[in-house]
Amino acid sequence: MGGNISALVQLDTVSRVYTMGSSDVVALRAISLAIDSGEYIAITGTSGSGKSTLLQIIGCLDTPSAGRYVLNGTRVDALSDIELSRIRNFQIGFVFQAFHLLPQFNVCENIELPLLYRKLSKQEREDKVNEALAKVGLTKRGLHKPHELSGGERQRVAIARALVGSPSLLLADEPTGNLDQRTGDEIMQLIENLNDEGVTVVMVTHDLEKAGRAQRRIEMKDGLIL
Ligand code: ADP
Ligand code: MG
């Protein structure tokens, strides 16, 4: 298949077909894509073009219907759900448009969640949570519940949760989609700072101005990369 064998993400002719009763929806059509460690990539394209499906496969939330996916040296396209959740926990940080925080838990507890699956002491977890909180500028908000925060603050918490386990990849699906212009710009700046520190970022956005700030732009249409 060739390609860059040292790439962090290596997709080879990956397809995803959703079966809906008797009809099939082809969301990805034999996509090949390599992403190197440290890159900052924006994925754009019209609604329904397959952006979220691609991101979910890269993030091991979903598996290809066909094709091959190697993440950080491990072939992940045919792993079981348990193996995938382990890979996700160690390698992937996900940020969504709608934040997806747990409302009954405070900020620190939300950020700590990914660490509960690891063998860490309480003190180690606390240190990592505090470091992540500081990174997103929310040190004073640790004991607040999500509903006591603004949208921008909630997204910062989600970013801290995505980062706390030091993943190989930060994936963001329309991370500023629920935020006003100014707050969205602040979140973009935060994501860019993280990339400057070496975090590999793949971001879906329909905002071409924001996409233009990435190092590389991938445009999708009808399940293909243009
Ligand atoms: P985008 O994020 O670019 O809007 P998606 O990846 O969400 O696109 O969707 C790509 C195509 O796959 C669309 O036609 C969509 O309707 C379909 N699709 C997405 N998720 C599902 C699903 N869970 N079941 C069936 N079809 C789906
Ligand atoms: Mg989408």
Give a structural overview.
- By secondary structure, this protein is an alpha/beta fold.
- It contains 7 helices and 10 strands.
- The chain has helices at 51-58, 81-91, 107-112, 122-135, 151-163, 181-196, 208-211, and strands spanning 9-20, 23-35, 40-45, 66-71, 74-75, 92-96, 169-173, 200-204, 216-221, 224-225.
- It has a 6-stranded mixed sheet with strand order 6-7-8-3-9-10, sandwiched between helices. A 4-stranded antiparallel sheet has the order 2-1-4-5, covered by helices on one side.
- α6 links the parallel β7 (169-173) and β8.
- The longest helix is centred in the last third of the chain and has 16 residues, at 181-196.
- It is globular.
- The two termini are 20 Å apart.
- The structure holds adenosine-5'-diphosphate and magnesium ion (MG).
SSE arrangement, N to C: EEEHEEHEHHHEHEHEE
As residue ranges, the low-confidence spans are none
Q: What is the average of the pLDDT values?
A: 94
Bound molecules: adenosine-5'-diphosphate, magnesium ion
Radius of gyration: 17 Å
DSSP strand tally = 10
Topology:
Layout: E1 9-20, E2 23-35, E3 40-45, H1 51-58, E4 66-71, E5 74-75, H2 81-91, E6 92-96, H3 107-112, H4 122-135, H5 151-163, E7 169-173, H6 181-196, E8 200-204, H7 208-211, E9 216-221, E10 224-225
Helix pairs in contact: 4-5, 5-6
This protein binds adenosine-5'-diphosphate (ADP) and magnesium ion (MG).
